[in-house]
Amino acid sequence: MTGDGKSTIRSGFVALVGASNAGKSTFVNQLVGAKISIVTHKMQTTRTLVRGIVIHNNTQIVLVDTPGIFQPRKRFDRALVSTAWGGVRDADIVLVIVDVQAGLSGEVAAIFSGLKRMHHPRILVLNKIDRVNKQLLLELTAAIINEKAPFERVFMVSALNGSGCGDVLDYLAKALSEGPWYYPEDQISDMSVHQLAAEITREKLYLRLHDELPYSSIIETERWEERKDGSVCIEQVVYVERKSQKKIVLGHKGSTIKFIGQVARKEISEILKRPVHLFLFVKVCDNWSDDPERYRKMGLDFSD
Length: 304
What we know:
36% helix, 9 helices, three-stranded mixed beta sheet, alpha/beta
């Protein structure tokens, strides 16, 4: 409380960092209470910084979901990892998300090493605790302590069912500094609806095709028309790098792309709360991962 009896206003940015598939996006969605970041079993689903906004105990917590950190091999990989570390550097607090099923992997150890060069307050969040026994959790916590990775607090959560997530919000609401809110009270993300619609379609594409399609495919919303009857007409293009990939996305007589369009349209319509007409097209864009313009549109750095 302030001297005049009013509650203290707090705000700040909290970056979530972790290996691929650690559950960062699921955790952000759980804390925000809405879907603002897509989730699939495919590695490197998150490609740019996705900000989810939570107001808890008079504190505006801006959660920054970052791409998973892994050993990069290609230019696109390096752009993803660079973006993730950039999100960490700009944050006030860092949440390190560790999948307890994967344990103290080489990727997690590399993240701990990278964080030692930074001076942010860092919190350890052990995720997916509903999938392992208590003894394994204790052993993993001890192993992390032996790595001499300094954390101010350790939380054990299940991002999927919400267990322990409220404790994390309580802590962050107190730990962030006093200051005005960055976003309007009713805003839950800084992502535009055009971007979100493209992300939802990409999620459905990955969920339908699994390992058949490389994660390097991209989706762009090229047309968005608000109609007089209240509906929205959306045209999106799925870009792949080879003709063989185009055949996979289309499916037999267009059955695959039709299914993806149906499930994506349904979810986009539910989010927008209005009828949606979604039209998907598939195009081959040779070596798009070497095109600086594509990186710019995704908010990634194009570098060697």
